[in-house]
Write a structure and sequence with these properties.
This protein has helices spanning about 1-20, 40-45, 85-90, 100-110, 150-160, 185-210, 225, 230-240, 315-330, 345-365, 465-475, and strands spanning about 50-55, 65, 70, 115-120, 160-170, 215-220, 245-250, 275, 290-295, 330-335, 370, 380-385, 390-395, 400-410, 415-420, 425-430, 440-445, 455-460. It is an alpha/beta fold. The chain has 2 domains: about 40-365, TIM Barrel (Alpha-Beta Barrel); about 380-475, Sandwich (Immunoglobulin-like). Helix 4 crosses helix 10. The radius of gyration is 26 Å and the shape is globular. Bound molecules: ligand FHN. The site of ligand FHN has 8 residues, from loops.
Length: about 475
Protein backbone atom coordinates (compact mmCIF):
# COMPACT_ATOMS: atom_id res chain seq x y z
CA UNK A 1 0.00 0.00 0.00
CA UNK A 2 2.84 2.35 1.01
CA UNK A 3 4.61 1.60 -2.29
CA UNK A 4 1.45 2.43 -4.25
CA UNK A 5 1.06 5.76 -2.39
CA UNK A 6 4.70 6.70 -3.02
CA UNK A 7 4.32 5.85 -6.72
CA UNK A 8 1.12 7.96 -6.95
CA UNK A 9 2.82 10.90 -5.20
CA UNK A 10 5.77 10.68 -7.60
CA UNK A 11 3.42 10.60 -10.58
CA UNK A 12 1.53 13.69 -9.32
CA UNK A 13 4.84 15.50 -8.69
CA UNK A 14 6.14 14.56 -12.12
CA UNK A 15 2.94 15.77 -13.75
CA UNK A 16 3.14 19.03 -11.77
CA UNK A 17 6.71 19.71 -12.83
CA UNK A 18 5.94 18.75 -16.42
CA UNK A 19 3.06 21.24 -16.39
CA UNK A 20 5.28 23.97 -14.90
CA UNK A 21 7.91 23.29 -17.54
CA UNK A 22 5.26 23.33 -20.30
CA UNK A 23 3.71 26.63 -19.37
CA UNK A 24 5.25 29.58 -17.58
CA UNK A 25 3.10 32.34 -16.15
CA UNK A 26 3.77 35.34 -18.41
CA UNK A 27 2.64 38.91 -17.92
CA UNK A 28 3.64 40.06 -21.36
CA UNK A 29 3.25 37.02 -23.56
CA UNK A 30 0.26 36.22 -25.77
CA UNK A 31 -2.92 37.65 -24.26
CA UNK A 32 -5.20 35.26 -26.03
CA UNK A 33 -5.27 31.56 -26.78
CA UNK A 34 -6.03 30.85 -30.42
CA UNK A 35 -7.22 33.14 -33.21
CA UNK A 36 -9.16 36.36 -32.83
CA UNK A 37 -12.82 35.69 -33.59
CA UNK A 38 -14.13 39.23 -34.21
CA UNK A 39 -15.45 40.62 -37.51
CA UNK A 40 -12.45 42.90 -38.14
CA UNK A 41 -10.03 40.01 -37.99
CA UNK A 42 -12.32 37.81 -40.06
CA UNK A 43 -12.38 40.53 -42.72
CA UNK A 44 -8.54 40.64 -42.71
CA UNK A 45 -8.38 36.84 -42.96
CA UNK A 46 -10.60 36.90 -46.05
CA UNK A 47 -8.49 39.49 -47.94
CA UNK A 48 -6.22 36.94 -49.61
CA UNK A 49 -4.24 39.53 -51.56
CA UNK A 50 -2.69 42.75 -50.33
CA UNK A 51 -0.38 45.44 -51.67
CA UNK A 52 2.67 46.70 -49.76
CA UNK A 53 4.03 50.14 -50.65
CA UNK A 54 7.51 51.22 -49.58
CA UNK A 55 7.98 54.89 -50.28
CA UNK A 56 10.25 57.54 -48.87
CA UNK A 57 13.21 59.76 -49.70
CA UNK A 58 15.31 56.67 -50.54
CA UNK A 59 13.29 56.59 -53.79
CA UNK A 60 15.23 59.67 -54.95
CA UNK A 61 18.69 58.03 -55.23
CA UNK A 62 16.95 54.78 -56.26
CA UNK A 63 19.91 52.61 -55.30
CA UNK A 64 22.65 54.82 -56.79
CA UNK A 65 24.89 57.48 -55.42
CA UNK A 66 27.29 59.54 -57.51
CA UNK A 67 27.27 57.01 -60.31
CA UNK A 68 27.84 54.00 -58.05
CA UNK A 69 25.44 51.13 -57.77
CA UNK A 70 24.22 50.12 -54.32
CA UNK A 71 23.72 46.35 -54.30
CA UNK A 72 21.57 46.25 -51.15
CA UNK A 73 17.88 47.00 -50.64
CA UNK A 74 17.32 50.57 -51.89
CA UNK A 75 15.65 51.75 -48.66
CA UNK A 76 18.84 50.87 -46.76
CA UNK A 77 21.14 53.07 -48.86
CA UNK A 78 21.75 55.43 -45.94
CA UNK A 79 23.69 52.66 -44.20
CA UNK A 80 26.07 52.29 -47.19
CA UNK A 81 29.49 53.80 -46.61
CA UNK A 82 29.59 55.24 -50.13
CA UNK A 83 26.63 57.49 -49.33
CA UNK A 84 27.44 60.24 -46.82
CA UNK A 85 24.79 60.39 -44.08
CA UNK A 86 24.59 64.14 -44.44
CA UNK A 87 23.74 63.83 -48.12
CA UNK A 88 21.01 61.32 -47.33
CA UNK A 89 19.59 63.40 -44.51
CA UNK A 90 19.21 66.33 -46.88
CA UNK A 91 17.41 64.40 -49.60
CA UNK A 92 14.04 65.43 -48.19
CA UNK A 93 14.73 68.96 -49.45
CA UNK A 94 14.34 67.56 -52.97
CA UNK A 95 11.28 65.44 -52.25
CA UNK A 96 8.66 66.75 -54.66
CA UNK A 97 6.76 63.84 -56.20
CA UNK A 98 4.70 65.80 -58.67
CA UNK A 99 3.49 62.61 -60.40
CA UNK A 100 2.01 61.23 -57.17
CA UNK A 101 -1.70 60.57 -57.45
CA UNK A 102 -3.06 58.53 -54.57
CA UNK A 103 -6.29 57.86 -56.42
CA UNK A 104 -4.42 56.39 -59.37
CA UNK A 105 -2.42 54.12 -57.08
CA UNK A 106 -5.56 53.04 -55.25
CA UNK A 107 -7.38 52.32 -58.50
CA UNK A 108 -4.44 50.27 -59.74
CA UNK A 109 -4.39 48.31 -56.46
CA UNK A 110 -8.10 47.69 -56.73
CA UNK A 111 -7.76 46.50 -60.31
CA UNK A 112 -5.00 44.16 -59.17
CA UNK A 113 -7.45 42.63 -56.73
CA UNK A 114 -5.79 43.84 -53.50
CA UNK A 115 -8.12 44.06 -50.55
CA UNK A 116 -5.65 45.81 -48.24
CA UNK A 117 -2.61 47.99 -48.47
CA UNK A 118 0.29 48.33 -46.06
CA UNK A 119 1.82 51.77 -46.49
CA UNK A 120 5.11 53.01 -45.03
CA UNK A 121 4.43 55.99 -42.79
CA UNK A 122 8.14 56.02 -41.93
CA UNK A 123 10.92 53.57 -42.63
CA UNK A 124 14.16 53.08 -40.66
CA UNK A 125 15.47 56.52 -41.76
CA UNK A 126 12.67 58.14 -39.73
CA UNK A 127 11.39 60.34 -42.57
CA UNK A 128 7.64 60.75 -42.03
CA UNK A 129 5.19 60.82 -44.91
CA UNK A 130 2.67 62.55 -42.66
CA UNK A 131 3.17 65.95 -41.02
CA UNK A 132 4.06 64.63 -37.57
CA UNK A 133 4.20 67.36 -34.98
CA UNK A 134 6.89 65.45 -33.07
CA UNK A 135 9.70 65.92 -35.61
CA UNK A 136 10.71 68.30 -38.37
CA UNK A 137 11.84 65.41 -40.57
CA UNK A 138 8.52 65.06 -42.38
CA UNK A 139 6.85 65.64 -45.70
CA UNK A 140 5.72 69.05 -44.39
CA UNK A 141 9.33 70.23 -44.63
CA UNK A 142 9.73 69.15 -48.27
CA UNK A 143 8.88 71.13 -51.42
CA UNK A 144 5.87 68.83 -51.78
CA UNK A 145 4.51 69.80 -48.33
CA UNK A 146 1.18 67.89 -48.43
CA UNK A 147 0.26 64.98 -46.20
CA UNK A 148 0.89 61.80 -48.19
CA UNK A 149 -0.40 59.32 -45.60
CA UNK A 150 -3.69 61.24 -45.48
CA UNK A 151 -4.09 61.04 -49.28
CA UNK A 152 -3.33 57.32 -49.25
CA UNK A 153 -5.82 56.61 -46.46
CA UNK A 154 -8.60 58.55 -48.22
CA UNK A 155 -7.97 57.21 -51.71
CA UNK A 156 -7.59 53.54 -50.78
CA UNK A 157 -10.48 53.64 -48.31
CA UNK A 158 -12.65 55.18 -51.03
CA UNK A 159 -11.79 52.20 -53.28
CA UNK A 160 -12.86 49.79 -50.51
CA UNK A 161 -9.26 48.80 -49.75
CA UNK A 162 -8.37 48.53 -46.05
CA UNK A 163 -5.34 50.53 -44.98
CA UNK A 164 -2.70 49.25 -42.57
CA UNK A 165 0.11 51.58 -41.63
CA UNK A 166 3.69 50.34 -41.69
CA UNK A 167 5.74 51.91 -38.87
CA UNK A 168 9.42 51.31 -38.24
CA UNK A 169 10.49 51.24 -34.61
CA UNK A 170 14.07 51.80 -35.78
CA UNK A 171 14.43 55.54 -36.35
CA UNK A 172 17.89 56.69 -37.44
CA UNK A 173 16.78 60.32 -37.27
CA UNK A 174 16.00 60.43 -33.55
CA UNK A 175 18.92 61.22 -31.29
CA UNK A 176 17.63 58.94 -28.54
CA UNK A 177 17.26 55.92 -30.81
CA UNK A 178 19.78 53.11 -30.31
CA UNK A 179 19.90 49.42 -31.07
CA UNK A 180 21.86 48.27 -27.99
CA UNK A 181 20.30 48.79 -24.56
CA UNK A 182 21.25 52.10 -22.95
CA UNK A 183 23.93 51.82 -20.25
CA UNK A 184 24.57 55.25 -18.78
CA UNK A 185 21.98 57.56 -17.15
CA UNK A 186 22.38 59.92 -20.12
CA UNK A 187 21.71 57.12 -22.60
CA UNK A 188 18.77 55.93 -20.56
CA UNK A 189 17.24 59.41 -20.47
CA UNK A 190 17.70 59.73 -24.25
CA UNK A 191 16.08 56.33 -24.81
CA UNK A 192 13.12 57.37 -22.62
CA UNK A 193 12.69 60.35 -24.92
CA UNK A 194 12.76 58.05 -27.92
CA UNK A 195 10.10 55.82 -26.36
CA UNK A 196 7.85 58.80 -25.62
CA UNK A 197 8.38 60.05 -29.18
CA UNK A 198 7.44 56.64 -30.64
CA UNK A 199 4.31 56.41 -28.49
CA UNK A 200 3.31 59.97 -29.43
CA UNK A 201 3.70 59.28 -33.13
CA UNK A 202 1.63 56.11 -32.94
CA UNK A 203 -1.14 57.86 -31.06
CA UNK A 204 -0.91 60.71 -33.55
CA UNK A 205 -1.39 58.30 -36.47
CA UNK A 206 -4.42 56.64 -34.91
CA UNK A 207 -5.95 60.00 -34.12
CA UNK A 208 -5.26 61.53 -37.53
CA UNK A 209 -6.36 58.49 -39.57
CA UNK A 210 -9.27 56.80 -37.77
CA UNK A 211 -10.22 54.85 -40.93
CA UNK A 212 -7.14 52.62 -40.78
CA UNK A 213 -7.48 48.98 -39.83
CA UNK A 214 -4.08 48.04 -38.52
CA UNK A 215 -0.47 48.86 -37.71
CA UNK A 216 2.28 46.86 -39.40
CA UNK A 217 5.40 47.13 -37.29
CA UNK A 218 8.95 46.61 -38.44
CA UNK A 219 12.48 47.14 -37.10
CA UNK A 220 11.50 45.90 -33.64
CA UNK A 221 14.33 43.39 -33.30
CA UNK A 222 16.81 45.68 -31.50
CA UNK A 223 17.79 44.48 -28.05
CA UNK A 224 17.05 47.95 -26.64
CA UNK A 225 13.41 47.67 -27.79
CA UNK A 226 13.03 43.99 -26.88
CA UNK A 227 14.10 44.79 -23.32
CA UNK A 228 11.24 47.27 -23.02
CA UNK A 229 8.62 44.56 -23.39
CA UNK A 230 6.40 45.52 -20.39
CA UNK A 231 6.27 49.13 -21.58
CA UNK A 232 5.65 48.11 -25.20
CA UNK A 233 2.89 45.76 -24.11
CA UNK A 234 1.18 48.57 -22.18
CA UNK A 235 1.53 50.84 -25.20
CA UNK A 236 -0.03 48.17 -27.41
CA UNK A 237 -3.01 47.91 -25.07
CA UNK A 238 -3.41 51.68 -25.12
CA UNK A 239 -3.38 51.71 -28.92
CA UNK A 240 -5.97 48.96 -29.04
CA UNK A 241 -8.18 50.83 -26.56
CA UNK A 242 -7.92 53.95 -28.73
CA UNK A 243 -8.84 52.08 -31.90
CA UNK A 244 -11.23 49.15 -31.37
CA UNK A 245 -10.62 46.30 -33.81
CA UNK A 246 -7.01 47.40 -34.49
CA UNK A 247 -4.95 44.63 -36.05
CA UNK A 248 -1.30 44.24 -35.00
CA UNK A 249 1.05 41.50 -36.15
CA UNK A 250 3.70 39.66 -34.19
CA UNK A 251 6.53 42.13 -34.89
CA UNK A 252 5.60 44.74 -32.31
CA UNK A 253 6.80 43.34 -29.03
CA UNK A 254 8.59 40.59 -27.19
CA UNK A 255 7.59 38.82 -23.98
CA UNK A 256 9.45 39.44 -20.72
CA UNK A 257 11.99 36.76 -21.65
CA UNK A 258 12.84 38.51 -24.90
CA UNK A 259 10.98 36.00 -27.10
CA UNK A 260 9.58 37.59 -30.24
CA UNK A 261 6.66 36.45 -32.44
CA UNK A 262 6.00 33.38 -30.32
CA UNK A 263 6.21 33.77 -26.56
CA UNK A 264 8.10 31.55 -24.13
CA UNK A 265 5.12 29.15 -24.05
CA UNK A 266 5.03 28.95 -27.85
CA UNK A 267 1.89 31.08 -28.22
CA UNK A 268 1.63 33.69 -30.95
CA UNK A 269 2.13 37.26 -29.71
CA UNK A 270 -0.65 39.55 -31.01
CA UNK A 271 -2.91 38.93 -33.99
CA UNK A 272 -1.03 37.22 -36.80
CA UNK A 273 2.33 35.65 -37.51
CA UNK A 274 4.57 38.18 -39.23
CA UNK A 275 7.65 36.00 -39.62
CA UNK A 276 6.98 35.08 -43.26
CA UNK A 277 8.92 37.70 -45.13
CA UNK A 278 9.88 36.62 -48.67
CA UNK A 279 9.17 33.12 -47.48
CA UNK A 280 6.18 30.79 -47.51
CA UNK A 281 5.82 27.86 -45.12
CA UNK A 282 6.33 24.37 -46.52
CA UNK A 283 3.13 23.13 -44.92
CA UNK A 284 0.23 24.46 -42.90
CA UNK A 285 1.45 22.58 -39.82
CA UNK A 286 4.31 25.11 -39.45
CA UNK A 287 1.70 27.78 -38.66
CA UNK A 288 0.21 26.05 -35.60
CA UNK A 289 -3.29 27.22 -36.55
CA UNK A 290 -2.38 30.93 -36.50
CA UNK A 291 -3.27 33.70 -38.89
CA UNK A 292 -0.35 34.90 -41.01
CA UNK A 293 0.68 36.95 -44.00
CA UNK A 294 3.63 36.79 -46.35
CA UNK A 295 5.25 40.04 -47.48
CA UNK A 296 6.85 39.44 -50.88
CA UNK A 297 9.12 41.52 -53.08
CA UNK A 298 9.00 41.39 -56.89
CA UNK A 299 12.79 41.34 -57.36
CA UNK A 300 14.83 39.32 -54.90
CA UNK A 301 15.12 41.79 -52.01
CA UNK A 302 14.16 45.31 -53.01
CA UNK A 303 11.37 47.11 -51.16
CA UNK A 304 12.00 50.79 -51.89
CA UNK A 305 12.56 51.99 -55.47
CA UNK A 306 15.81 50.75 -56.97
CA UNK A 307 16.18 51.96 -60.55
CA UNK A 308 18.14 48.87 -61.58
CA UNK A 309 16.73 45.54 -60.54
CA UNK A 310 19.32 42.81 -60.77
CA UNK A 311 18.81 39.08 -60.59
CA UNK A 312 15.58 37.20 -61.02
CA UNK A 313 12.42 39.29 -61.13
CA UNK A 314 9.22 37.45 -60.31
CA UNK A 315 6.52 37.19 -62.94
CA UNK A 316 2.81 37.57 -62.33
CA UNK A 317 2.53 33.78 -62.70
CA UNK A 318 5.12 33.33 -59.91
CA UNK A 319 3.21 35.70 -57.66
CA UNK A 320 -0.15 34.13 -58.44
CA UNK A 321 1.29 30.75 -57.58
CA UNK A 322 2.52 32.18 -54.27
CA UNK A 323 -0.86 33.78 -53.66
CA UNK A 324 -2.75 30.53 -54.10
CA UNK A 325 -0.15 28.69 -52.01
CA UNK A 326 -0.64 31.19 -49.17
CA UNK A 327 -4.44 31.05 -49.30
CA UNK A 328 -4.29 27.24 -49.44
CA UNK A 329 -2.51 27.51 -46.05
CA UNK A 330 -4.91 30.13 -44.64
CA UNK A 331 -2.57 33.08 -45.20
CA UNK A 332 -2.55 36.35 -47.17
CA UNK A 333 0.05 37.38 -49.74
CA UNK A 334 1.15 41.02 -49.79
CA UNK A 335 3.02 42.07 -52.94
CA UNK A 336 5.42 44.98 -52.53
CA UNK A 337 5.60 48.06 -54.78
CA UNK A 338 8.32 50.72 -54.63
CA UNK A 339 7.26 53.90 -56.44
CA UNK A 340 9.99 56.20 -57.74
CA UNK A 341 10.99 59.61 -56.40
CA UNK A 342 8.47 61.40 -58.59
CA UNK A 343 5.60 59.25 -57.42
CA UNK A 344 5.27 56.93 -60.42
CA UNK A 345 4.84 53.21 -60.22
CA UNK A 346 7.44 51.60 -62.47
CA UNK A 347 6.21 49.83 -65.63
CA UNK A 348 7.31 46.38 -64.41
CA UNK A 349 5.13 46.75 -61.31
CA UNK A 350 2.25 48.20 -63.30
CA UNK A 351 2.40 45.17 -65.60
CA UNK A 352 2.39 42.78 -62.63
CA UNK A 353 -0.62 44.61 -61.16
CA UNK A 354 -2.48 44.42 -64.47
CA UNK A 355 -1.72 40.75 -65.09
CA UNK A 356 -2.55 39.70 -61.55
CA UNK A 357 -5.73 41.74 -61.76
CA UNK A 358 -6.85 40.04 -64.96
CA UNK A 359 -6.40 36.67 -63.32
CA UNK A 360 -8.13 37.76 -60.13
CA UNK A 361 -11.05 39.11 -62.11
CA UNK A 362 -11.75 35.63 -63.44
CA UNK A 363 -10.54 33.54 -60.51
CA UNK A 364 -10.84 35.70 -57.38
CA UNK A 365 -13.64 33.47 -56.07
CA UNK A 366 -10.98 30.87 -55.31
CA UNK A 367 -9.03 33.44 -53.24
CA UNK A 368 -11.31 35.83 -51.35
CA UNK A 369 -12.75 34.24 -48.23
CA UNK A 370 -11.31 30.89 -49.28
CA UNK A 371 -9.36 28.70 -46.92
CA UNK A 372 -7.33 25.55 -46.50
CA UNK A 373 -8.85 22.35 -47.93
CA UNK A 374 -7.69 19.24 -46.13
CA UNK A 375 -6.93 17.25 -49.26
CA UNK A 376 -3.65 15.65 -50.21
CA UNK A 377 -1.40 18.12 -52.04
CA UNK A 378 -0.95 17.24 -55.72
CA UNK A 379 1.89 18.16 -58.04
CA UNK A 380 -0.38 20.05 -60.47
CA UNK A 381 -1.27 22.84 -58.03
CA UNK A 382 -3.26 23.75 -54.95
CA UNK A 383 -6.69 23.41 -53.40
CA UNK A 384 -8.66 26.10 -51.64
CA UNK A 385 -12.24 25.78 -50.41
CA UNK A 386 -15.31 27.83 -49.60
CA UNK A 387 -18.55 26.30 -48.35
CA UNK A 388 -19.22 23.10 -50.30
CA UNK A 389 -16.98 24.18 -53.17
CA UNK A 390 -13.41 23.16 -53.73
CA UNK A 391 -11.12 25.10 -56.03
CA UNK A 392 -8.36 23.31 -57.87
CA UNK A 393 -5.82 25.92 -59.02
CA UNK A 394 -3.74 24.37 -61.78
CA UNK A 395 -0.22 25.66 -62.27
CA UNK A 396 1.39 22.54 -63.76
CA UNK A 397 -0.95 20.98 -66.27
CA UNK A 398 -0.19 17.25 -66.58
CA UNK A 399 0.56 15.94 -70.08
CA UNK A 400 -2.17 13.34 -69.49
CA UNK A 401 -4.67 16.19 -68.93
CA UNK A 402 -5.87 14.22 -65.90
CA UNK A 403 -5.75 15.88 -62.49
CA UNK A 404 -5.62 13.41 -59.64
CA UNK A 405 -7.57 14.20 -56.50
CA UNK A 406 -7.63 12.00 -53.44
CA UNK A 407 -10.60 12.35 -51.14
CA UNK A 408 -10.42 11.03 -47.60
CA UNK A 409 -12.98 8.28 -47.11
CA UNK A 410 -15.38 10.37 -45.04
CA UNK A 411 -15.08 13.58 -47.11
CA UNK A 412 -17.85 15.13 -49.17
CA UNK A 413 -17.71 13.71 -52.70
CA UNK A 414 -17.32 15.57 -55.99
CA UNK A 415 -20.57 15.86 -57.91
CA UNK A 416 -19.85 18.57 -60.49
CA UNK A 417 -16.77 20.34 -61.88
CA UNK A 418 -16.30 23.31 -64.20
CA UNK A 419 -13.76 25.98 -65.13
CA UNK A 420 -14.13 29.00 -62.87
CA UNK A 421 -13.29 31.45 -65.66
CA UNK A 422 -15.99 30.41 -68.14
CA UNK A 423 -18.20 27.82 -66.45
CA UNK A 424 -17.38 25.11 -69.06
CA UNK A 425 -17.87 21.63 -67.57
CA UNK A 426 -15.04 19.33 -66.60
CA UNK A 427 -15.63 15.60 -66.47
CA UNK A 428 -15.10 13.85 -63.12
CA UNK A 429 -13.70 10.36 -63.56
CA UNK A 430 -14.07 7.97 -60.68
CA UNK A 431 -10.71 6.22 -60.43
CA UNK A 432 -11.73 3.90 -57.64
CA UNK A 433 -10.54 3.30 -54.15
CA UNK A 434 -6.78 3.48 -54.51
CA UNK A 435 -6.01 3.17 -50.83
CA UNK A 436 -8.05 1.83 -47.98
CA UNK A 437 -8.86 5.27 -46.61
CA UNK A 438 -9.19 7.40 -49.69
CA UNK A 439 -10.99 7.63 -52.99
CA UNK A 440 -9.26 8.71 -56.13
CA UNK A 441 -10.84 10.88 -58.78
CA UNK A 442 -9.48 12.38 -61.96
CA UNK A 443 -10.61 15.65 -63.45
CA UNK A 444 -10.35 15.34 -67.21
CA UNK A 445 -9.20 18.61 -68.78
CA UNK A 446 -10.45 18.63 -72.38
CA UNK A 447 -7.28 18.28 -74.52
CA UNK A 448 -8.48 21.15 -76.72
CA UNK A 449 -8.68 23.48 -73.70
CA UNK A 450 -6.00 26.12 -74.27
CA UNK A 451 -4.70 28.03 -71.25
CA UNK A 452 -1.84 30.49 -71.34
CA UNK A 453 -2.24 31.18 -67.63
CA UNK A 454 -2.87 29.12 -64.52
CA UNK A 455 -6.55 28.19 -64.29
CA UNK A 456 -9.04 27.12 -61.64
CA UNK A 457 -11.55 24.29 -61.70
CA UNK A 458 -14.45 24.44 -59.29
CA UNK A 459 -15.48 21.15 -57.75
CA UNK A 460 -18.85 21.04 -56.09
CA UNK A 461 -19.09 18.44 -53.39
CA UNK A 462 -21.92 16.79 -51.54
CA UNK A 463 -21.81 15.02 -48.24
CA UNK A 464 -24.88 12.85 -48.61
CA UNK A 465 -26.12 9.33 -49.02
CA UNK A 466 -27.05 10.37 -52.55
CA UNK A 467 -23.47 11.22 -53.37
CA UNK A 468 -22.30 8.03 -51.69
CA UNK A 469 -24.76 6.10 -53.79
CA UNK A 470 -23.56 7.91 -56.91
CA UNK A 471 -20.06 6.90 -56.03
CA UNK A 472 -21.11 3.27 -55.57
CA UNK A 473 -22.98 3.29 -58.88
CA UNK A 474 -20.10 4.86 -60.69
CA UNK A 475 -17.91 2.03 -59.46
CA UNK A 476 -19.91 -0.77 -61.07
O1 LIG B 1 14.59 46.26 -43.08
C1 LIG B 1 13.27 46.14 -43.52
C2 LIG B 1 13.16 46.14 -45.02
O2 LIG B 1 13.73 47.29 -45.54
C3 LIG B 1 11.69 46.07 -45.40
O3 LIG B 1 10.99 47.18 -44.91
C4 LIG B 1 11.08 44.81 -44.82
C5 LIG B 1 9.60 44.64 -45.09
O4 LIG B 1 9.08 43.62 -44.33
N1 LIG B 1 11.25 44.80 -43.36
C6 LIG B 1 12.62 44.93 -42.89
C7 LIG B 1 13.36 43.68 -42.94
O5 LIG B 1 12.65 42.69 -42.27
Amino acid sequence: MRAILITLCCLVMLQGSAHAADSIALKHGAHRAGKRTDADMQRWREHGLGQFVHWGVYAIPGGHWEGKYYPGAAEWIRSWREMPKKAYDNLYKQFNPTDFDARRWAKQAKDMGAKYVIFTTKHHDGFCLWPSKYTKYTVAGTPYKSDIVGQIVSAYTAEGIDVHLYFSIIDWSHKGYRSAPPQTPKERAAYEEFKAFTANQLEELLTAYPAIKGLWFDGSWDKAWVEQSPWVDTLGMKLRAMHPGLIIGSRFRADEYGKRHYDTNGNLIDDYDQTWERDIPESISALKGNDWDCAMTIPENQWGYHSEWKGYVKTSADLLEMLVRCVAMDGNLVVNFGPDGRGSIRPEEAAIAREMGEWMQANGEAIYGASHAALKQQGWGYFTKKGDKLYAAVFNRPVSNLLSIEFPRDAALPVKAYFLADGKPVEIVDAGRNKRNSRLYKLAIPPEYVASKPFVIVIETLQSAEAEEGYQQAKT
